[in-house]
Sequence to fold (643 residues):
Amino acid sequence: MPEAPYVLAFSLYLLTLLLLLRLGPGALLGFVLLLLLADAGLLLGLSGRPYGFAGLALLGLGSLVTPRERFVPRLPRRRRRRLLPPSEKEPLEERYQILGKLGTGGMATVYRAKRRADGLVAALKIPQERYASEPRFLRRLHREAEVLKKLRHPNIIKVYEHGQAGTTHFIAMELVDGPSLDELIANRRLNPELARKVLLPVAEALKYMHDQGFLHRDLKPGNIMIYRSALKDGDVDPAGVRLMDFGIAAGKEFTRLTTVGARIGTPTYMSPEQAKGQPLDEKSDVYSLGVVLYEALVGEAPFQGDFEQVARKQIHERPVPPIQKNPKLHPLLNDLVMRMLEKDPARRPDLAEVIATLKHLREAETPELAQGHLLALAVEAPGGNLRLVDQKGLPVRAFGHQVASDLAVDREGYVWVVHFEFTGNRGMIRRFSPEGEEVLATGTYGLKLGEFFNPIAIACGRNDRVYVLDSESQAITRLTLEGRAELRFGGRGPGRGSFQNAVQIAVWDDVYVLDLDGRQVQRLDAEGNYKDRFILAVSAQDPSPRRLAGLGIDAEGNLLIYDADAGKVRVLSQAGKLLASHPLPLADDEDAGALVDLAGSPDGVIYALRRGSPRIYRLASEEGPLEIGVPVRALALWLPQRP
Fold:
């Protein structure tokens, strides 16, 4: 039939199109040649059979030049299986034998594993099931491995290999047999010297990272490991310290957060700029290292709370200096931490300075006591219940191991304290040297002269005598600097020279006693004889006495009285003339009914403490309050040579 060539040609076209869906570029070449031969055959009047066979042959030749892999059939994807316990078969076990689980983090689980090829024991990091198919997380996982492969420092964790086995992505890295810094902190196994030795090699590793063009961005105690063999007798070999977990480490050109509004890292250790989602540089890692150092030194991070609370504090609040929480810290170490935690990155030290300070800190001598005035404090805190703090509120000495109810300072600079309760036969009255050595214990329990029921207040006079108030008997006992009791006066009663509820005493040449229930301050001479009293009237028209709740003496011998009704500290001359009044602030965390301790310095500053508060107000001064960081029970002025 005359239509047969056309039917055959049309069939060949269809067959060729089907083949082209399966074959590559070479088949396309064969198809073009087939068309040319067909047209030539028709024009020459040839039969369809010769050129049809020729065209098919060309199709076969085209398939031969097609890349071979295009002919390999795609294998069906293996169904993803959950990572099974070590005893069961795993796709990854073709390469590694799982020996046990080391721990689980937020996104990955780490296993102890042995490489079958050579017996290498490694830490195998594998994504948790819910992240195993998350492309962004898998990129982060492999980026961590790539970063680590580029970093060769003795204190940075090593990566042996990473990749995919079956459907399982993994990193095989150095296995550190030992605790994390997080564990050492939680178990209270650190002291300032050990913390310094652990974090010095971390700072060196971090500086090496920065020199190579990388930021860590997720520094925290859990990312610092120490070989167990490196920890011996309270010391550490720096060669056994490792910095790890570089999952969000990035080059300096990739320092913005990965997505709009997303924040990567642990909020407790974030820098302010990281919490705000701003571009980061090396100073961000310096801040995070400062937070880690702070926590290692005092046992807790500077800011606590949920994500939003901590992020807000990182941006806006100044942390309590670590020396307030651990007064045994060297002041230079405290200063280093506080500079590392500056909100402005430009004010933070660089890592070279951090490393130099940590290296030479042990050689630095403990500073001498200031020539100016200090404050002696009785606090509720471990590591020293008695402190001498400078005019910034930072401890320069810490001593004593029993909470005191009151304290005073004599003219020789020795600190006298009275304790809440009687312990054994050592006495309830103690005297400490300025260096913190206990030199005297007196005042046992009893009724005799020199014995006490419940001593609650103490003061030192210019006559080198010490006066102790007992709340039970309402009597005042006078002692010599050697602790010998000379006389006792006062007592319970409504009359002059006796008291209804005496709670505080202050001494210049005379003895001043605050009687809460009597709403007055009585003045007695050094022998206990009544002289006069101070009462603050409500007004000229109303002679009713105001409530008084605080007592002290300034450096000039003027009387300081807290007027609780007005919320002001009144300054009175010894003749009773009102010299000045200063409002006393009240913070939300302070007890409005607490007793107020008052002391005036030679430069005119009046220190005011609501007992139990962590802050001391500086009245008659433009300076803000001193943040002590721990509850303070009593204060007194300390001078090298008291007049």
